[in-house]
Amino acid sequence: MPLIEARSLSKIYMLGKTEVHALNAVNLTVEKGEFMAIAGPSGSGKTTLLNILGCIEKPTEGSVLFDGKNVAQLSGNQLADFRLNHIGFIFQTFNLIPVLTAIENVEFPLLKMPLSKRERRTRAQEALESVGLGGLAHRKPDELSGGQRQRVAIARALVGRPNIVLADEPTANLDHATGLAVLELMSDLNSRLGTVFVFSTHDPKVMSMARRVISLVDGKIVEETTVP
Question: How far lies 121's CA from each of 76, 105, 108, in Å?
Answer without folding.
Answer: 29, 11, 10
